[in-house]
Amino acid sequence: MKREGRPGGRLEWIDALRALAVALVVWGHIQTKGNTLYFVLTSPVKIPLFFAITGYVFNTRDLQWGSFLKKVFFRLVIPWILFTMIWFKAGRLLVTGRPEAFLPTICDFFMGKTYWYMPCCILAECIYFAIRKHIPGRGAQIAASLALTAAGLVTGCLKLVPWAVVNVALTAQAFILIGRIYRERRDALREGTGRWILPAGLAVYAAGIALSLLLFPGETMDVHLSRYYNLPLCAALIVSGLLILFFAAESVGHFPRWICCIGENTLLIYLLHRHVLTALHYGLKLLHVTLPENLAGYGIEFVFAMAASTVCAWLIGRWCPALLGRGTAGKPGGTPGRGIPGGKGGKA
Could you tell me the pTM of the whole model? Predict the structure, then answer.
């Protein structure tokens, strides 16, 4: 089932899953009004999918902290710092005579109050790397992941850790674990009784959504805020939803190149799409054009944000690959970022 005909041995279906995840994120940022149903339907997989991909493609050939942290720095930290507007905002504070707000703004940035996913992702990857490197035995590693997940849920519910991304990075170990287990059991899952995975998963997911709407009206899961309105129900939705997506995507024979291009560049799309939307709104304002606040207007914003961000990311990757840590982080190894937006991943 491994289709490695693309450069670097990337798997099309992994890039397609990554593209789907970032599209769900961008749409959620655009349609912020009256979209409770959308979040009920997509929240169980939207963010967990990125982490699950990390667990699937994680490579244990080079479990050395030095090379791992080097890859993290070049492939995650550098793009995160370079392709955000926080520095423009901080510069304006100095120019406009508000230097006292400069350091708090920078601190908020690195603590995840803006672009929360980036520090959360970096921390989650480091925790998972530590588990794989320092804990011997598959069973002990799984137990550690589950224990850290429980710790994240407890600290999140009790708000014991003021830096919220710590809670989410701990909870994300369960999502990463799902991807790992799927990879380890994929052959068994896709043979024999595996033919029931997709229909059974769809049935569980549909039943879970129906129960959510019936028993918890108006409630939505929010991984970022560690908000799970009913833990067993949310867990069933996350597991079944991720299994559905992994199983279905791997079953598809081929994905269009443009989908894979989005999947290759999800980090930059995530970092750039808000700036692209700001530019769009500014341009429309100059032209005295107002988009309707309905499905058509949101659709125009979505298509523009995805297309423009993808083109920008492709140009940067083609002409300035070093800015994305491509070709600068050494040999392939225990790979940071391979399951997160824009990571080097897609290999297995």
Answer: 0.88
